Amino acid sequence: MKTHKDYFDFKIIARCDNSNARAGEFRTPHGMIKTPVFMPVGTNSAVKMLTVAQVLETNAQIILNNSYHMYLRAGCELIKKAGGLHQWQNWHKPILTDSGGFQIFSLAKLRKITEEGVYFSDPKNGAKHFISPEISMQIQNDLGADIIMAFDECAPYPCDYEHAKSAMERTHRWLKRCFDAHNNPRIALFPIVQGAFFEDLRAQAASFVSGFDAAGYAIGGVSVGEPTDVKNKIVEFCAPLLPDDKPRYLMGVGTPVDLINGVRFGVDMFDCVLATRNARHGTFFTYSGNKIIKNKEFSEDFRPLDENCNCYTCKNHTRAYVRHLYRTGEATAATLLSIHNIHFLVNLMKDLRNSIIENSFDVYSKKLLEGFNRCQTV
């Protein structure tokens, strides 16, 4: 009988001498992923403002879809009939789906958490729904991604110790149910470490999830409103506690500075909506900090968005042109900024990976951080 080990394999090919940074290769049914890696988010089975061809041109290796939105909108049965997410959206590289737990738990007054699962109302039309660990596994198996996430309870920030402990313990009970319900070795199920911002709870959670024979493991419950130093402390604490020979995924984190720090802490996989959300609001990444395209300083600036970037936007258009599009309400502005921001993060991870292989990560990452922190405008 085949197991996930027949379809998934992770090898570390280089390590940093003075930190936990590592470069790896993660084999999946839809291709090899070179880590560390940034995953663009295609919430509704599309990366906002971009076609699949445009996402491919950014050199993205893997994308993330949200099973909560797929379940509520297109419907899992329709996507299953289409042949699964890969056929549905014509993306034939790896795909990861999150369980929708974070979206459900963020509904506040629109949901009720029970031991059996979560009852919630669709915020758009008020329709009543129920998702349990077993239903979450069925939804994600029907969608057919390469990697799926366990159904978990994400505690808010701030929260007291007892709340965090209760959410973590329920996450663990649900994790057992997820593994009992999931039996497709071609789809890897990642457990999630919760425990809010209490180190003893995080240590318990890391130990518990590591007891499951999984193809990879995730750190959840960060980027929920906490200060950056608090987030860094918990990620730095958690990452080394997870199995060294499996990929480590930090959920929902994606600023350039966060990516560099996460790699330094020993994280291999990242995702975040920030790249495209920032783009739609006119913000773009550069190696000297974030910039806002609508600012007057760019009105006659005929340089690319970033002179060190070779994305489609930077090779073909100027800051002045993109500013004009943005100020006149042309949707193309958001497309061009999204292409740049995703390419920027994908390429940043590629460069960090190369620096690990060349054993220059410490010097290179420090230089990058100095540039990013020099002129942060947002």
Automatic annotation (TrEMBL):
Please give the superkingdom of this protein's source. Bacteria
Q: Which InterPro entries match?
A: ArchSynthase1/Queuine_TRR, TGT, TGT-like_sf, tRNA_ribo_trans-like
Q: Where is the active site?
A: D98 (proton acceptor), D271 (nucleophile)
- Reaction(s) catalysed by this chain's protein: 7-aminomethyl-7-carbaguanine + guanosine(34) in tRNA = 7-aminomethyl-7-carbaguanosine(34) in tRNA + guanine
Name the Enzyme Commission number(s) assigned to this protein: 2.4.2.29
| GO biological process annotation, one example | tRNA queuosine(34) biosynthetic process
- Identify the residues that the record assigns to the tRNA-guanine(15) transglycosylase-like domain, covering every copy: 19-370
How are cofactors bound according to the entry's free-text note? Binds 1 zinc ion per subunit.
Q: In which pathway does it act?
A: tRNA modification; tRNA-queuosine biosynthesis
Any idea which positions bind substrate?
D98, S99, G100, G101, F102, D152, Q194, G221
**Renumbered residue ranges of the record's region RNA binding:** 252-258, 276-280
Binding of Zn(2+): at which residues?
A: C309, C311, C314, H340
Q: Which PANTHER family match?
A: QUEUINE TRNA-RIBOSYLTRANSFERASE
Family label: Belongs to the queuine tRNA-ribosyltransferase family.
Q: What protein does this entry describe?
A: Queuine tRNA-ribosyltransferase
Gene transcribed to yield this protein: tgt
